[in-house]
Amino acid sequence: MLRRISPCHVQLGMYVHALEGRWADQPHWPRERLLDDEGEVEQLRRSVLTSIVIDTDKGRSIPFATRRTPAPAGGTVAGLRVGKASADPTMKGLLQTVGRSRREVMRVVEDVRLGRPISVARLGPVLTDLSEQVERNAAAFLGILRLKARDEYTYLHSVAVSALMMNLARTLDRPAEEVSALGMAGLLHDVGKIAMPPDILNKPGRLTEEEFAVMRRHAEDGARILKAGQGVPDAAFDVCLHHHERMDGKGYPFGLTGDRLSLAARMGAICDVYDALTSHRAYKDAWSPQKALAEMQSWAGHFDPALLKAFLRSLGIFPRGTLVRLRDSLLGVVIADNEEQPTRPTVRCFHSIPMDAPIAPEDVRLAHDNVLTLEDPADWRIANWPAVRARLLGEAA
């Protein structure tokens, strides 16, 4: 819901939809954004703006006593409801980490534009902060990063891919130094887009063949920028150059097949596409995590299947039709998404693990004490899983 409030009531964790007042009184500001920095909150509080419109579906609301007349109705996109949670220290820490990371990525971009080499040492503290937040509460942190507005995509996409890479690396039990290198790779994977013409990079419609040919150069441009940098890990160079390659060899810039792609490059391809699909872009609205993952699973030849399965485990988000296990007692198929809590879908249970026998189908809306894990039908000797799944979903086989 959109609400109009006085500037004096602005708080950390709110999502700014619009600023109202004379143009000259408005600070230099992206069109929409999540407030993740105390300095920016204070700037708005001191401003002489008439009012500020916030979106309570995308960020923190306000105490009832301070509410004013609701703003005119407008479209909203479902995302993480920060709500009252943004007042607690944990959520505040997550928001501030997002803000610091965004500002540091912006500084790196500006350095490159000015012809300065990238200094990985400058990104070290940001990466440490990101790593700690992902380790403490990956679901909440990745949820906040989904709130980025179209104007923030360029900077926060790199932060999100970094967090996703580290989260996946930990799921794969990679060594700590490799987790760190992969996180740095995420921060730097799209640095080549700095060299792209803005009218192509931000085009709201489909790119022409000529425009797409220009856009495809960003991987090699980025690799050249990183090569001139200081202390850039090999994984970062590799991911920057190869994150648009595909397992079937139909990617770019070199058309390499999966057997010639490193683990880091294959991870980067998954994390980059997932964040792009679940983000608001100049030319499209965000998909839900479930829709994005379901589509990615359907793209034969695009991703490493085993890594994609590990990525689903790392997020704890399973699309409709996925076989899952509830604790150690039941097998079920996901039948309905939960937009507000993607890790808590509705599951149709059909098999008892202790009895090793079918049961009458029962629908369960997962609670916080349930443990959900992704399962392979072959491990449970389920014959003709596509037909079984279709029957449970009420679809034609």
Automatic annotation (TrEMBL):
<dbReference type="InterPro" id="IPR003607">
    <property type="entry name" value="HD/PDEase_dom"/>
</dbReference>
<dbReference type="InterPro" id="IPR006675">
    <property type="entry name" value="HDIG_dom"/>
</dbReference>
<protein>
    <submittedName>
        <fullName>HD-GYP domain-containing protein</fullName>
    </submittedName>
</protein>
<feature type="domain" description="HD-GYP">
    <location>
        <begin position="132"/>
        <end position="327"/>
    </location>
</feature>
<dbReference type="InterPro" id="IPR037522">
    <property type="entry name" value="HD_GYP_dom"/>
</dbReference>
<dbReference type="InterPro" id="IPR021812">
    <property type="entry name" value="DUF3391"/>
</dbReference>
<dbReference type="Pfam" id="PF11871">
    <property type="entry name" value="DUF3391"/>
</dbReference>
<dbReference type="Pfam" id="PF13487">
    <property type="entry name" value="HD_5"/>
</dbReference>
